Amino acid sequence: MPTGHTSNLYNGKAESFEDFVLACARGMGAFIHQRDDSSCDKPALRTPSAYHAEAVAKDEAALNAWNKAGDDDKYDQWRGYENDTNRANRDRRAKNEALRFRYDRRLKEVKAWSVPERLQSFKDFMIDQIESSIKFDCSDYQQDVLEYDEWADQQAGYLLRSLESSQKSFDADIKRCAEQNQYAAALYTALNLEVPR
Known about the structure:
This protein has 2 domains: 7-49 and 178-190, no CATH class; 50-173, no CATH class. The longest helix has 43 residues, at 148-190. It is built from 6 helices and no strands. The chain is mainly alpha-helical.
């Protein structure tokens, strides 16, 4: 039974040795960056993803903007963070209170339900489900609002770590491209074909 790579041989379709080798190279993942391209396309050299370069540029701009911002601008950002955190805490509290009310109402109904002895384990199961949901869904968690100095330190650290992470991903992508392109060049050279540009 033919595979996708041997079907031309099976069907008697003319295919050069080079085309067979290049198709197999794509099939084994050596050219994974072309996975969405037509299988008729020859393997091509890989270029670094624009995503990583854009992430580095965005993170550099954010860090530079933070470093250039004056104390008043940073304080205004902190006030926005403080307001957003307090609003989120209020919203979470209101949502949890409404949810707790619904759970409690249903729990009272289940506990008040008179069942025959043979259904008692089922009733206990329902009570356990509601009580577990109350414990999990209705926590009193409130996010602490950081003081300005602590928030500013965390913000600066976050921006720096984000840039470092983006740069690391970008560097890794450049390295992967270089390694895959060396493989591609070796493959084309082994077939006495011109290496694509």
